[in-house]
Design brief:
The chain is of the alpha+beta class and about 200 residues long. It has 8 helices and 6 strands; from the N terminus they run αββαααααβαββαβ.
Length: about 200
């Protein structure tokens, strides 16, 4: 079924209470004991979980972080229905295209892209995650980085503008970015269309 087993409802109640109160605790889902912060050391499993969660746009970043800190795995989360996620997080969720069992194929494609373009994933808990980014409200669960990760430890600058810039705007933005780099800044982009 799309929903987890009925015997797991008590575990969901406990998990919901723990997440909402930000308290530690153990959770049992589908007979699997999940200790608090029992994050696996298997890097592929960690990437799999981060990629899966990055596709779930209907879950806030701080909620994703709480789920990871509770020790959830991709295998466990992929058993939850949208209603289960809604119940666990204590708020109504809507998504027209959520179908957990289709994520296995998406993750295979994601792994191929990461490998082909030498893209690294930096999680919220990694040493390379920018400290200032941890201080903002709703910090991203992970960053997808291509290039020199060490640049993130330098002074960084984000340039944000319209998605539909004029030619002159693009020229000025390029000149500003170039001058900033020449003065020791690392330009960080969210890779949105236009000026970003």
């Amino acid at each position: 079924t799309n929903s987890i087993l009925r015997r797991d409802i008590n575990s969901l109640v406990k998990l919901k209470d723990n997440i909402l109160k930000n308290e530690p605790g153990n959770v049992v889902i589908s007979g699997e004991l999940i200790d608090e912060v029992s994050i696996t050391k298997d890097k592929k499993k960690i990437k799999e979980l981060l990629l899966f969660l990055s596709h779930l746009d209907f879950i806030k970043a701080n909620e994703k972080i709480a789920l990871v800190e509770k020790g959830f795995t991709f295998e466990t989360l992929s058993k939850l229905s949208l209603n289960d996620f809604s119940y666990v997080l204590g708020r109504p969720l809507t998504s027209s295209d959520f179908c957990a069992h289709t994520f296995a194929r998406k993750l295979e494609k994601d792994f191929s892209v990461l490998q082909a373009y030498d893209i690294h994933i930096i999680s919220f808990w990694d040493e390379d995650y920018p400290p200032l980014l941890k201080e903002i409200y709703d910090s991203p669960l992970c960053l997808f980085v291509r290039g020199d990760i060490g640049c993130l430890k330098r002074n960084t600058l984000g340039i944000v503008g319209t998605r539909y810039p004029s030619f002159d705007s693009m020229k000025q933005t390029f000149a500003f970015a170039k001058e900033s780099v020449e003065n020791g800044f690392c330009i960080v982009s969210g890779l949105a269309n236009g000026i970003d």
